Structure formats: structure tokens, C-alpha cells
Amino acid sequence: MSEANELYQQLILEHNKTPRNFKKLEHFTHDADGYNPLCGDHYHVWLKLDGDTITDIGFQGSGCAISKSSASMMTSAVKGGSISAAKELFEKFHSVIMTKIGETIPEEKIEELGSLGSLAGVREFPARIKCASLAWHALNAALTNSKKDISTETETT
Amino acid sequence: MNIAGKEQIIDIEKVRRDFPILFSKVHGKPLVYLDNAATTQKPNAVLDMQNVYYREQNANIHRGVHHLSETATFEYEKARGKIKNFINAADAKEVIFTAGTTAGINLVASSFGKTFLNPGDEVIISAMEHHSNIVPWQMICEERGGTLRVIPMSDEGELLLDEFEKLLTPKTKIVSVVYVSNSLGTINPVKKIIDRAHQNGSKVLIDGAQAVAHMKVDVRELDCDFFAFSGHKIFGPTGIGVLYGKAALLDAMKPYQGGGDMIRSVTFEKTTFNDLPYKFEAGTPNIVGGIGLGAAIDYVNTIGIDAIAEYEEELLMYGTEVLQQVKGLRLIGTAKKKASVLSFVLDNAHPHDIGTILDREGIAIRTGHHCTQPVMQRFGIPATARASLSFYNTSEELDALVRGIEKVKEIFG
Question: Is A155 part of any domain?
Fold first, then answer.
């Protein structure tokens, strides 16, 4: 069983302390709310799209180190890229954090996640997987321009 | 501070042996269970009683003429009698079995509301209510055209009684307040609130979920009109609870749910209802839950609720002292009179992260908003970490909590 300090890697703690893109966008084209009613974690994600490109992204809100660092790393990873690349990254990230305890994750699957790979350990903490995916669901909702706020209790993790 | 002397009030080694789960290991460490406000652990007496019931007595109650049904009915009604004595109700028919505190409050909100709440009437609750003592009142107010009023609280987490005075008007039909706050630990001056409400002609419901396991409750001395609590927070099973209500008031109220057991006679034209308490107990109840709760109350009586209260007060004082010495830790809820609950926030670490790290040390606490979102909003925080005590906890376990928090600080700086 993994120790707590294996979950809280330096990169996670650093993003938690100084989250990237932690701002409301003045000019945005899409936005959505992400909320976990069970714990109260709450983020808002703003996007500026130019065609298929995410030209800017920001988030604000409050939550634990896992949810905040995941949101921070997510914004860094998708900024400047295409919508399809962002969605593809979400799928890869999701499959890593949802990998069952005991199953091996191929090293390259973690490596291709870049800094987000530091969150792979969250799969050992089932109660915290929703924290890691919260901002992603909000991003997904913003991209599909869903007017509905996203709650972890209406989404699958 | 050494509370070794106090531990003699309760033979701590002996009582811990009554709770088998306390000897389990979590992530390879001895379990330190500090989540008693969420639910308490169950002593052997309760576990054994439930086993005996299903092995030797199981039958439906109030229905059969056969031996098992009579035995089950006898045991279930005996449990009702134990609860009546425990809270000092005037009559066992004033003890209604429910699924828990939430179910009890919903029963009163619905039945009292449909009988007595008219458009323009008001319901008073407080700023530190659990969602279960907010939402049922909002629902019935909306249905009946009533208005919800809220008693505010201080930064320490104490209700502002002067403000309560101002809220009381001839329109106030009922006041529904929590005895002990689940997220702050505040013991509210419910006797004062009840007396003032009664002078105003208003009825009072006390949410006693966090009170019954920690202090003597005497519903006649309090003179409350309703008192709701849950079995699982007083060492009994989940899915069983109690609503106490004054008989005259319960008699005057419309039934809550319809079904078997709550009727006297049924035709397609008209149904007449059964007497108390059965009028409010439609359907086959949680029989084993009721019997298990009776066993839990017997168990509490063998230890003594006054001894429990005294021991826990010392333990809470010790916990408050050692937590206050932790740099960067802030207690949320610092009322003069408190029970069981140590809610706190830590600089640089979110409560969920605290909870995960403590869990890996074998320490179980609750983190989050504790179903009291308005309390979190009042204090301007998203969540707290909450350690909540019972009489089987020790000062050594609180020391382990502090060591766990130090580990959080090592990780989060």
C-alpha cells in the first residue's frame, strides 16, 4: 500500500502552491463550472478558442492539492494546442488514473502525460480520483459549450 | 496535560475491549477512530443482540399470533421502553421509531407543517444546522407558503440569542435547532431557546443527533415538543432512529406515511388511523435495528452517561490544548460549551489532503463541509478537517492525531 508522501510528489505540491493560469479570462469564448457536491471542491474554467485552437485558458476556485494541481497542469498542457489534442490527453490521463490498483501502467503511458504523469499515483487512493478529474470534466463541458454546470455526481469519474 | 486520573472514571482498557473494530489495523497501523460524529462503533452487546435476533427470534411484529412473532414484538417494544426511560419521555407511545434523525425531522416538517403551517407563518432554524434540519423546512415552507428565518451566530460559533428574540413573532409556528453542532461542537442553550419559544406560543424541535451519546438528555426537563436522534450515533445500528414527540401534539398531527401498521380500519371509502406511536410507523419497521438500539442504550447505561460526559469533557479539553499548540492550525468552533468535536483548518493544506495523509497513518477523521455548507460560508472556508471523540478514545490517540498533522506539515510545508 502506497504511503501518503508517494501521492504528494514535489511537482504536485509545487503546482498546488503556485497554480498556473490561475485567473479569470477577461475575454473568453467558452466556460463551465466543475463541482464536487460531496466534498465542496469547486472550480471554474474559462477558454478562449480561435477555430480549433485553445489560445488561452484560465481557472479559479478552491479545492484540495490533487484537484488544484491537476487543474493547473491541465491548463499548461492544453494551452496553445488543438481541441482534439486536449480531448486525447484527457482520455490518456483518465485511463492512467483509472487503472486498477495492482495493474502495471506501461512507463511510456505515464511519460506521454508529461507533468500530469506525476498524478498517476492517485489511482492508489480511490477516494481521490474524482479530485484529479474534476477540472477536466469542467474543461470538457466548456469545450462542448454545455450550459450545464458539471458535477462529479452526474459524471463518471 | 495528563488525564490519566480521568481515565479511571471509565475503565478505558475494558471498554475498548467491548468494541472489536478498535483493534483492527488500517494501512498496517493501529486504527485511531476519530470520526464518531459521522458514526460510532458498535459494542459486542449490540452485535450479539442482532445475531441472536436473526438466529432465534426473527419474525414480523404486531401481526402474528405465533410464538416467534410474539417474541419479536415483545423485544421490539421492550427496546421502545428502554428508549423512553433513557430520554425520560412520559410514555412509550411518544417514542416513534424512524430511520434516523433525518427521517424524524422530515416527519415533523411534513406532518406538523401540513397540519399547522399556513401561508405567512414562519419557521426558525439556526445558522449551524445540518442540511437535514434546513432542507425539510425549506420544502414545507415552499409548499405551505411559509418563511424560513435563521438565528445567526458569532465568530466563536455561538448562537446570538438577542437576534433569536427579534425573530420570534406571533407568526413563528416552530423553532427547530440543533443541540450539539456536528461541524463546530457547540452545545446550544436549548433550554433557554425552548422556554422563550414557548412563551411566544411556538413549538420546538431539537435535533439531538450529536447530543444523545455525549450527555444526559431529559426531554421532559427540556420541555421540547420534539426530539430527534439516530441509533448509529449512539453505538446502535444504522437505519434506526427515534423521534420523540409530545403525545397531544402527535395526536393532533396528520399522519406522515400511509400503509400497514398505521391504520385501525381500511375501506375504499375511508381509513381510520391507529393510535400512537403506530400512527407514524407505516410498514414493517427496522425490527433488528430497534432491538439493537435497545441493546446500545443498555450498554451506555452500564457505563453511565454522566461518566461518559465527564470523561469526554476532559478528553476534549486535552485535544483542544494539544491542537492549539500546532503552528498554523486554527480551530473552527471555539464556543465556551462544546462536546466531542474538534474542527480545524491548517495553513497550506486542504482538509482532504489532511484526511488522506492521516488515513495512511491509520487515523480516521472526517473532512469536507460536514453537510453544513452554510457554516462553511459563515466562516469563509470551503471545508474543515474534523476529529470527533467518543468515550473509547484516549489522550494517546489525540497525540497520534497531532503526530499525523505534523506529518501533513512536513509534506505541505
Answer: no
Q: What domains are defined for chain B?
A: 4-43+305-412 (3.90.1150.10), 47-302 (3.40.640.10)
Q: Does residue A63 lie in a domain region?
A: yes
**Residue A154 placed within a domain:** no
Phi then psi for residue A152, to 5 deg, are: -65, -20
Q: Which residues in chain A have their CB less than 8 angstroms from residue B382's CB?
A: 40-42, 62-63
Nearest-CA residue of chain A relative to B412?
Answer: A13
Percentage above 90 pLDDT, chain B: 96
Task: For chain B, positions 24-83, list CB contacts with chain A under 8 A.
Answer: 27-28
Q: Is A157 inside a domain boundary? A: no
Q: What is the pTM of this model?
A: 0.94
Tens of pLDDT, residue by residue over B367-384, are 999 999 999 999 999 999
What residue numbers bound the domain in which A136 lies?
4-145
Number of domains in chain A: 1
E runs forming strands in chain A: 30-35, 42-50, 53-62, 150-151
Q: Does B412 touch chain A (CB under 8 A)?
A: yes
Q: Is residue A1 over pLDDT 50?
A: no
Residue B47: exposure state from Cβ atoms within 10 A (0-12, 13-18, ≥19): middle
| Predicted local distance difference test score (pLDDT) of residue A156 | 47
